[in-house]
Amino acid sequence: MGEIIRISWVFAVIQITQKVNGLLFYLRKLPLLGKKIPGGVFQSYGLKKVLTVLLFCWKGMFNFLVKFLWLGLSYVGVVGFNNLISQEHFSLFPPNPILLRQGFLVWLIVIVIGSLFEGIWYSLDDNEVRFMEQFLLPRVRFVRGRILLLNIVEVVKYWPAFLLYGLLLDWPWGTLIVGTLAYLVPTVFFFWLGRIIYTKTLSQRRWFTWVILLVMLLLLGIDLWLDKTALVGTWLLHPISWAVLAVMLVFFSYKFLNYPLENNYLIWQVERLRKAVEAAPAAKNAQYLGQGLSMQKRLELDASSDESLSGSQYLNDLLFKRYRRILTKGLYIRLAVVGVVWLAVIVLSLLGFSREMTEANLIGLLPLLFFTMYLASFGKIIVQMAFVNCDISMLYYPFYREAATILSGFTYRFKKTLFYNGSIIAGILLIFLTFGLLNPGILSLQFYAVLLLLLFSLAVLFSFHELFIYYLLQPFTSEMEVTNPIYKIVSGVFYGIAYANLQIDVTGLSYALLVSAVSLLYIGIGLVVLWKKAPDTFRIKE
Fold first, then answer.
1. With contact defined as beta carbons under 8 Å apart, do 475 and 541 qualify?
2. Phi-psi region for residue 60, left (φ > 0), alpha (ψ -120 to 50) or beta?
3. In angstroms, rounded to a whole number, what is the distance separating the alpha carbons of residues 196 and 216?
4. Is the bond preceding residue 94 a cis peptide, omega within 30 degrees?
């Protein structure tokens, strides 16, 4: 184990160092901050050591806090469950000893379920395989030692949480001991079991997994329903269970460490991993280019472009005509959904269900429009279509990366995107107008004016945003991969903003005015940035 600890430490240091190098690399890619970071920063070993230590400390503290969280959530879940099924009300504080035992049992069942999937469906990590091959490490000893070491470290991280939970149960050391054993026993058992059944078919392993899972859930359900006695939870805290669990741990560990076909099992794992790695790029980047690749399969080659156009205008006109049928079909589907809502508004208004509606109620629905347009927008589709079917080839030509050409292509694509998004916006506006006509006197002229401004701003924003970050960051490589983490971060943040709009409780028209002002300001600043920066950033990534 001493050798495994030393090797695992080297492996961990290498992984953290790679992350630090990646962080420094992408910080240098940032528009403003990147210029202030010298290229020699990668040779600043002292700085990288400091960052490595900080990352280690952060991961350590975070992992300790997560263990408290899991035990706490188990107890909170039990309290909530008992409040649902019982006429008696239970509060979180002061803690109820019986509910604490039930919470501990819930945590244990979750650990067993996690161990079940981790053991039976265990898969080698690509970084571990490369590490073994680069340092010529003995495969069997390295994998077995790593599994044991990582799980021992994981349960040690639980010790502070066990002690605190045990103090609430008035049995800290008992909780620590039984928690440690109850964590390790199913973990080692399922790793051993996963090796025994790895030759079974995929359906057989799934069936086996579901049987064990159902038994665990049945055991939990019976224990929680038996008049709050928590029989299993009580038994786990009894000293006799410690000896039983200890014997089981020794037995399963012996079987795991002496499995005779370990080398064959690991060869199978490596081959399975290599197949997964080969298929990973397509699956990984499907979120960013999947729609574009799908559209490419349905390309129409019989479309012709306007002969009066030239340059990038000609290329973009030809591109959109060839994909017009696919884009139009997508638009019809979205408009059909809008049409269903429109018909529902008509029916409900005629039946009198909307009589109690007020202008304040409809103002409260305005944030929903932001998220609706996020889901329905054509911006991401058109970006993927443009890269996969045009830019991936044209970006190798210098003329295509000139400022005037970039702005010309951006403007054409923006107008087309605005047409499709604007059609959806027109449908949404029709819904509000229909409601107003069928329910006169509810909506004021001020509401309609602000609504028009908001819908116009959303149409322009969602037509502009995806094209803007695409031209500014151009994150795609010639191999159809996404290598720019900033693009992923921006995409995630924008989704977060869209989702956050669902949580806003709006009572006045100030929300619509604020969103409109921010959107138009963002577009204005974006156009200036695009003109100055796009010639340097809009190029194929290698």
1. yes
2. alpha
3. 21
4. yes
Q: Can you read off the two tokens belonging to residue 54?
A: 């900080």
Nearest to 359 by CA among 456, 482, 448: 448
Using an 8 Å Cβ cutoff, are 123 and 194 in contact?
A: no
- Identify the residue whose tokens are 């202008």: 359
Q: What are phi and psi of 482, to 5 degrees?
A: -105, 110
Cβ–Cβ < 8 Å for 343, 431: no
| Residue 171, pLDDT above cutoff 90 | no
Cα–Cα separations (whole angstroms), residue 422 to 412, 417, 468, 497:
15, 8, 18, 21
How many C-beta atoms surround the C-beta of residue 391 within 10 A? 23
**Count of beta carbons in the 10 Å neighbourhood of residue 61:** 10
- DSSP letters, 109-171, are HHHHHHHHHHHHT----HHHHHHHHHTT--HHHHHHHHHHHHHHHHHHHHHHHHHHHHHHHT-
pLDDT in tens, 340-363: 999 998 988 888 877 778 888 888
Question: Tokens at residue 435, please?
Answer: 């409601």
Tokens of 393: 């080839």
Helix (H) or strand (E) holding 1: none
Residue among 144, 149, 165, 134 at smallest CA distance from 72: 165
Q: Which residues does residue 219 pair with via DSSP β-bridges, in sequence order?
A: none
CA pair distance 214, 208, nearest whole angstrom: 10
* Torsions phi, psi for 476 (to 5 deg): -95, 145
Report the pLDDT averaged over residues 244-267. 90
pLDDT number for residue 229: 46
In this structure, what DSSP letter does residue 198 have? Answer: T
Structure tokens at 53: 């230590």
Task: Identify the helix (H) or strand (E) that includes residue 504.
Answer: none
pLDDT confidence tier of residue 283, bands split at 50, 70 and 90:
very low
H-only helix segments in 35-125: 45-85, 97-120
Mean pLDDT of 106-127: 85
pTM higher than the cut 0.90 = no
Q: Which is more confident, 71 or 278?
A: 71
Say if CB 429 and CB 448 are below 8 A apart: no
The answer to whether 179 and 68 are in contact (CB under 8 A) is no
Closest CA to 90 of 101, 76, 104: 76
The pLDDT tens digits of the residues spanning 429-441 come to 999 999 989 888 8
Collapsing DSSP to helix, strand or coil, 541 comes out as strand
Three-class SS of residue 476?
A: strand
Q: Return the closest-CA partner of residue 166 out of 154, 155, 179, 184.
A: 179
Q: CA angle, corner 346, sides to 344 and 349, nearest 5?
A: 105
Environment class of 524 (CB within 10 Å of its CB; exposed 0-12, middle 13-18, buried 19+): exposed
pLDDT score, position 156: 92
